[in-house]
Amino acid sequence: MGIHYNSESKTFHLKAKDTSYVLGILRDGYLVHYYWGKGISEYRNSNFLQFVDRGFSGNPYQQKNDRTFSLDTLPQEYPQYGNTDFRKPAYQVQLENGSTVSDLRYVSHAIYQGKAPLEGLPATYVEDAEEAETLEITIEDSLIGLKVILSYTIFEQFNAITRSVRFVNDGVQSVKLLSALSLSVDFREADFDFLHLHGAHVKERHIERKPLRHGIQSVESTRGGSSHQHNPFIALPRKGTTEDNGEVYGFNFVYSGNFLAQAEVDQFSNTRVTMGINPFDFSWKLDVGKSFQAPEVVMVYSSEGLGDMSRTYHELYRTRLVRGNYRDKERPILVNNWEATYFNFNEEKILEIAKAGSELGIELFVLDDGWFGKRDDDRSSLGDWFVDHNKLPNGLGSLSSNVKEMGLEFGLWFEPEMISVDSDLYREHPDWCLHVPGRSRSESRNQLVLDFSREDVCVEITKRVSDILASAPISYVKWDMNRHMTEIGSALLPADRQRETAHRYMLGLYMVMENITTSFPDVLFESCSGGGGRFDPGILYYMPQTWTSDNTDAVSRLKIQYGTSLVYPIVSMGAHVSAVPNHQVHRSTSMEMRGDVAMSGNLGYELDLTKLSNEEKEIVKQQVAYYKDIRRLIQFGDFFRLKSPFDGNETAWLFTNKEKTEVMVYYFRVLAEPAAPFAFLKLNGIDVNKQYQVTGTNNVYGGDELVYAGLSIPLDLHGDFQSHSWHLKEI
Ligand code: DGJ
C-alpha cells in the first residue's frame, strides 16, 4: 500500500491492497487520469496518452498553437466547463457577473498517513493511521481565487479508494456552486455494462444490468432521500464479468439525499463516470472565505467478479463505516408489533405479544408506530413525542420494565423528521416544515417534512426524542421516515440560498443523528424509510442496521435481499418473518421458507405471536434457537451469491466464516416445476482443501467436490415456495 509521487513524470500512483490508481499533472497544470485497475508494481506510462488533432475539439488558450491538445479528448480527474471539454463537467460555478466558466489548474499536493473525517458528513474512517494513506491535491482557478481540494484515500486492507472534494473561496467575490460532484473518473474505453439498483416502495434494489451505449446513462434521486427508486450505487462490470470472474468498478455515494450517478460515453468511446449531490434544484452560495465539503464516494475495484466487489463493500462498511457499540456485536432477534396490530393496540396486547416472544426465545420487543400523541391512525400527532396515556396508561417506563422482566429488551419507533398537520407542534410552529411561502403544502401519508435545515427545529426534535429515550429503559430505536420532499424551501433562508435547503436538511439530519446516537451509545438504532427508502452508507454511518423493505413476503424478499447484498452487509439488513397471507402481496408461503429467508439477514418477527398454532410456535422456537447458533456466521461471515432470483425460479447463497470452517447454504425454489432437471449447487466460497460434514448427517465431502461437482439439489421439495438449507462444518 502507499501513495507514490514521481516528480519527474509528475504522476501519482495510489496503491490500495491489489489495486492501482494512477493520475498525473499534465502541461499547464491539468490533472489527467492514467489508470485504475489491478495492482501494478511500477507505473511507467505504457498506456501513454496520444495527442491527435480531432475535429471540433478545440484547444484551450495556452495551447492554441497545438491543435492536438484539447480537454475534449483528455481523460481528466475533475473536469470543468467552458474551455474545450464538451462532456458533462464534475462541477460548475456561477460568478457575480453571471458567467459560468472556470479553469482549475494544479497548485500543490500533500500526502499523509490516515484519513481525516469530513466535517458534518458521514464517511469511512480508520482506527489507526497506518490503515490508510490520503492524497490531497489542490487545484485553483487563479482568476477568481477558487480552490478545489481533491481527496483520495487508499486502504491497506481493501481494494477500495474513497474520494471527496472541498471547495474554498479564497477570492474577493462570492461564487455560486451550481454543481459540485464528488467524483469523476474518465475511462479510456467503453466496453462495460451499466449496473444499478432500481425499485419502488415494497420493491427495493432490483438489479438491472444493460450494456453501456453512447450518450448518457444515469440514475438519480430528486426526492430528498436516497430513495427506494434508485440506490446511490452504480457499477461498471466488463461485459463478461460474472459473480466470480472478471473486472468490475463499483461506485457508492455516502449520502442520504438527492444524488446523481452518471456514465457518459463520448464520441471516442471514452466513459466518464460522475457521482455526487444532484445538481438538479441545487446551488450553494460560497461567500468569500467559506468552504463547501462535498460528500464521499467509495470506489471498489475487483478483478474477481461482482461477489468479490460486494464482499469488499461489506467488510469495509461493517468495520470502517458503521460505528458504535453494536458494530461488532451480534444483533438481537426482535419481534415488532406493526403488522400484528398496526395502530390498534393497548398495553395488555403489547405485553401479550412480548410474553409470547419471550417463550419462544426472542430477545427484543419493538413497539412500533402509535404510542404517542393521539395517534390512532396515520393522520395525526407526528412531532408530539409524548406518550399516549389512553393507550399506555402506565407510561413507557412501566411498559418497558414489564417487558424487560420477561427477559426481552424494549425498543421504540420514532419518525423524528416529520410533522402532522394535526399536531400540537404544527399548531405552535406552522413554519417549521419545508414549504414555499404562499403555496399550499402537499401532504403525503397525511404528513409534512420538518425543516431540518433550521437549527431550532433540530434542537427541539433532538430534545423531544432524547427526553423519551432518557425516560425509560429503551435499548433499541427504529428511526422511520415516510415521505419524500415537496415544496422544498425554508422560512429562514434568503432567496439566493433557497436551493441549498435540501442539502442543508441532510446536514441538519446528520447532526441530529450524530447527537442522539452518541448521547445514547447503548441504544441499537435501526433506520427505516418506509422500509428501504434510505438504505445508504450515509445512514449506516449513524445507524448500524436498516429495515430492508416494508415488503415482508418471502418470495419478494429474495430479490430485495439479493439486490441489497450487492453493496450492503448482511448484518445491516433487517429481515422479518411475517403472517400469511402476506400483507403486501397476499401470498402464502411456509413458515420454513419465511424463516430461511429472514435468517439470511438480521432476523426478526413481525406478526401476532399470540395467534400462532402450537405447531407454528414450535417451528418459530426452533428457528430462533437455530439462528442464535449460526448468528455470528450469518451476520459477520463472508457472503457468496450462488443463484440469482433475477435469472429465474431459484435463488441460492452461502455464508462462511473467515477460516472457512463453517458454512451455511440456503436454496430457494419459488414455483414447483414439472420434470425438473437434476441440478447441483456449486459451493463457491468454501475451502477446496477442507473436508466438510453436513451437520445432522454422516455425509462428509471434500471442499473440492462441493465446489467442482456440487451438491445435489433435492427433488423432493413438494409444491411452490420451497427452501432447503445445509449447515457444513469442517471435520
Ligand atoms: C413504515 C415502516 O416501514 C413500517 O415498518 C412501520 O414502522 C410504519 N412505517 C409505521 O408507520
Q: How would you summarize this macromolecular structure in one to three sentences?
A:
With 731 residues, the chain is an alpha+beta fold. It contains twelve helices and 38 strands.
Radius of gyration: 27 Å
Helical coverage, percent range: 10-25%
The low-confidence parts are none
Which small-molecule species are bound to the chains here?
(2R,3S,4R,5S)-2-(hydroxymethyl)piperidine-3,4,5-triol
Distance between the termini: 36 Å
Broad structural category: alpha+beta
* Lateral arrangement of strands in the main beta sheet: 6-7-8-9-20-16-15-12-13
Determine the number of helices (DSSP H or I, runs of at least 4 residues). Answer: 12
Fraction of residues in β-strands: 25-35%
Main sheet overview: 9 strands, antiparallel
Using the alpha-carbon principal axes, give the shape: globular
Give the number of DSSP strands.
38
The pLDDT mean sits at: 98
Overview of this structure, please?
The chain has 731 residues and is an alpha+beta fold. The strands form eight sheets. A nine-stranded antiparallel beta sheet has the order 6-7-8-9-20-16-15-12-13. Strands 21-22-23-26-27-28-29-30 form an eight-stranded parallel beta barrel, surrounded by five helices. Strands 31-32-33-38-35-36 form a six-stranded antiparallel beta sheet. A hairpin with a 4-residue loop joins strand 7 (132-141) and strand 8 (146-155). Helix 6 runs parallel beside helix 7 (501-519) and helix 9 runs parallel beside helix 10 (591-599). The protein starts with a strand and ends with a strand. The mean pLDDT is 98. Bound molecules: (2R,3S,4R,5S)-2-(hydroxymethyl)piperidine-3,4,5-triol. The site of (2R,3S,4R,5S)-2-(hydroxymethyl)piperidine-3,4,5-triol has 11 residues, from loops.
